[in-house]
Amino acid sequence: MNRLRFYLARLLRDEAALQQLSIPQSVLTDALEGKRIALIGNARALAESAFGAEIDAADLVIRINRAPMPAPASHGTRTDWLALATRLPDADRARLEPARLLWMSHKRKRLDYASATSPGFYLHPLSDYAALKTEIGAPPTTGAMMIDLIARSDMAELRLYGFDFFASQSLSGSRTAAQVPHDFGSEAAWVGALQQRDARIIRR
């Protein structure tokens, strides 16, 4: 798809056309099979940890949005996949060098051409977003959508780092929990219930 057709599809909210740019979800979940996965959230508290080496030892390291990484000791160095719900500045794209980009947001108007045409690009289905929104009872965060997606695969283990459900706010900005459109209490309860059902999921 050329740039003009992409922007036209985005403007007209032509989901079928945009989905043509995406690998099938089955290809993504097949790539997770048997893997030990580190999913890195952006909680400020992670900067005070020493999980960096443990993160880099995972088979697959997935980060979220602009993925601030204050220090290798706390955050590690690798970014294999990057899950997005916001435009990615060129400087962050160059810094992170992800092998695959995943667009998780239902807001397609934010999706940029460079991301949509990158190798192995994945566009999260609107139906999956809507189902998780109903299950949680609020718009899910990018992290929650990734947890849901990974949990439905045959991965070996999912370790969550930097997920404190906004208790320490985010390294990505100065907004408080009241200023973002998510229910972090409901999301924390949802993740806790998922952990009870699935021993593969560990929150560090």
From TrEMBL:
The keyword Transmembrane helix applies. Gene3D superfamilies: Glycosyl transferase family 29. One of its GO terms (molecular function) is glycosyltransferase activity. Signal peptide: none annotated. It is a single-pass membrane protein. The keyword Transmembrane helix applies. It comes from the Bacteria. Keywords: Glycoprotein, Glycosyltransferase, Membrane, Transferase, Transmembrane, Transmembrane helix. Its main location: membrane. Its EC number is 2.4.-.-. It is found in: Endomembrane system; Membrane. This is Glycosyltransferase family 29 protein. It comes from Paracoccus cavernae.
